[in-house]
Automatic annotation (TrEMBL):
Feature: compositional bias, Basic residues: 459-468
Sample GO molecular function, one term: oxidoreductase activity
Family membership noted in the UniProt record: Belongs to the short-chain dehydrogenases/reductases (SDR) family.
Organism: Candida theae
Parts of the chain that traverse the membrane: 281-302
Pfam family membership, one: adh_short
Name of this chain's protein: Ketoreductase (KR) domain-containing protein
Length: 468
């Protein structure tokens, strides 16, 4: 028992302590080292969030929610009862299905879903956003957490997205820009008493980045294979400029109910964290690099945060009530609001130019992508699209966009309730209108009477012929 052991040490002396001689011999050397390591780890672990908030029933959208900090945040929000929409590259992947099932079981929260939204493709982002917005009643959305990022290791050749953009720029900046701007109607339609928070992950490497308005996406400049962090830092710097401008646009929007803007966009710098992306960058994407990383792991363990510790500032951004009293566009680090940021982020003229140029680039890339998709379509895909379009036009639950679609839906309704029009999707002018007037009913009655008399005469003639 501990009490008996302490009593023995007190009355019999420290020699009753196991390995006392070794402790006396090596203690003066090991104890200062252990103390230094413990204090160093305590310092590098960073700040811890102390705010709490009830998230039951709230809806959050997360990019990068299957690994690293995003996975930890998803687990935390699910434990608090929030509904999660985790955006992934694919939804037909068995690993994703198992991950969602495991997360539901671990958190006892069935309201966790995966939706396909590949930031590597602007078309995929638009498809998801269109599906999300295509709802008669605006869907609830309490926040968007942008954790997805791509960090290309050193000495790896330039990689591109589906749209031909440098991959770090395409995923880190362009994909999130496209997603958030497309979701703007959904964000604006939330009730005024709902605080909507958008958190965008940034990095200290933004201090190494630069903004070239003539070449925003690093298309013309030579890709720095030996210094890929320059492109990565530029993508994060552009995100900061975009966040400021986007927040400004949302604040200027005048709601119909005259309520103040209830949307806040903030940047979050989690610090140096041992994420899969960091591990890949340190190991340079090679087996030998990974082996070296494992050998030197105690060093990384000491100086880098765990993913749980890296997520603390995200929790601060989601829970702290003070952030809703500010105008947004803040840089959060170590669970506090930073006052010193790069001058480019506060440059209003630069913000407008970057926003405008990026919007134009996206339009251009989407047009090019659409042309390429049309060229590469197979006959089967074309036929499937035609069938889907015909089905959409006939679906009476979808609002028609043209007069032709309206006529098709009206004829479908006529067919369903049995007042003419048949099963044809063409406009039947001789059929009964969907909402007939008295004159239409009278004409129908007269036509029916005439038809009955004609049928009666024909049947009488047939009978007389039979008698003869």
């Amino acid at each position: 028992m501990p009490v008996e052991f302490l009593a023995s040490v007190l009355f019999d002396g420290p020699q009753v302590i196991p390995y006392w001689e070794q402790i006396k011999q090596y203690g003066p050397t090991l104890i200062p080292i252990a103390t230094t390591v413990a204090l160093g780890k305590y310092y590098f672990r960073g700040a811890t969030n102390t705010w709490e908030r009830d998230l039951h029933g709230k809806v959050y959208m997360i990019t990068g929610g299957t690994s690293g900090i995003g996975a930890v945040i998803a687990h935390e929000l699910a434990m608090k009862g929030a509904q999660l929409i985790i955006l992934t590259r694919r939804t037909d992947d068995s690993w994703v299905a198992e991950y969602i099932d495991d997360l539901r079981d671990q958190t006892s929260n069935p309201l966790i879903y995966a939706e396909q939204c590949d930031l590597n493709s602007l078309y995929s982002v638009r498809k998801f956003a269109t599906k999300w917005l295509d709802n008669a009643t605006p869907r609830r959305l309490d926040g968007v957490i942008c954790c997805a990022a791509e960090a290309i290791p050193r000495n790896i050749p330039r990689q591109i997205t589906v749209d031909g953009v440098e991959k770090q720029m395409g995923i880190n900046y362009l994909g999130h820009f496209h997603l958030l701007t497309l979701l703007e109607p959904s964000l604006k339609s939330q009730p005024p008493d709902r605080d909507v928070r958008v958190l965008i992950a940034t990095c200290s490497s933004q201090s190494l980045g630069e903004i070239d308005l003539q070449d925003l996406l690093w298309e013309q400049k030579q890709y720095p294979t030996s210094q890929p962090w320059k492109v990565y830092g530029s993508s994060k710097l552009l995100l900061g400029v975009f966040a400021k401008q986007y927040q400004k646009r949302l604040m200027e929007y005048e709601r119909k109910d005259k309520a103040p803007c209830n949307i806040r966009i903030n940047l979050v710098n989690p610090g140096l964290v041992r994420t899969p992306s960091t591990r890949r960058f340190i190991s340079m994407g090679t087996i030998w690099g990974l082996l070296l990383y494992l050998i030197t792991f105690p060093v990384w363990w000491l100086f880098l945060k765990s993913v749980y510790q890296g997520a603390q500032t995200f929790y601060f951004g989601l829970y702290a009530p003070v952030l809703m009293k500010m105008e947004g566009g803040c840089l959060l680090q170590e669970c506090k609001i930073m006052t010193k940021i790069r001058k480019e982020i506060d440059d209003k003229e630069l913000q407008e130019k970057v926003y405008h140029n990026t919007t134009e680039l996206i339009k251009k890339l989407e047009v090019q992508s659409a042309i390429e998709r049309k060229k590469n379509k197979t006959e089967e895909e074309i036929q499937q699209e035609k069938e889907a379009e015909l089905k959409r036009k006939r679906d009476v639950n979808i609002q028609p966009k043209t007069t032709e679609e309206l006529n098709q839906k009206l004829n479908t309704l006529r067919s369903q309730i049995g007042i003419g029009g048949g099963s044809s999707v063409s406009n039947n002018e001789n059929g009964m209108p969907l909402f007939p007037e008295e004159s239409d009913l009278e004409n129908l009655k007269n036509n029916s009477s005439s038809k009955n008399r004609t049928d009666g005469k024909k049947s009488s003639k047939k009978k007389s012929k039979g008698k003869k």
